[in-house]
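Please decode residue identities from the backbone states below.
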């Protein structure tokens, strides 16, 4: 069974629920096995690190943590708003994602 997601790396998404509801960001990475995505500036956690080598600085680092893909919705380039997506096969046989609101293809 292949786990396909409606989100790909580089997409702009909006968060639907949780503490970061309403935030927009770019998808940095996708993990289809866990059905999670990492979004830039969303679900940021603080990590305390010690310096391990001489000359290395320690401190508090900010890092994005994964969130479930079902909590984000793709933002259409043409509409500019969050929209449901679908998949369709073009005349040349390629599969593309499209916006169900404006019927614009999302894959370039």
């Amino acid at each position: 069974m292949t786990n396909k997601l409606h989100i790909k790396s580089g997409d702009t998404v909006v968060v639907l629920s949780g503490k970061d509801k309403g935030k927009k960001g770019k998808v940095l990475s996708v993990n289809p096995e866990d059905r999670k995505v990492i979004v830039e500036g969303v679900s940021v956690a603080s990590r305390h690190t010690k310096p391990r080598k001489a000359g290395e600085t320690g401190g508090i680092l900010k890092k994005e943590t994964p969130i479930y893909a079902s909590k984000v919705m793709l933002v259409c380039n043409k509409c500019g708003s969050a929209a449901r997506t679908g998949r369709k096969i073009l005349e040349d046989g390629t599969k593309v994602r499209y916006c169900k609101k404006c019927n614009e293809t999302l894959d370039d």
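Observation: The radius of gyration is 17 Å.
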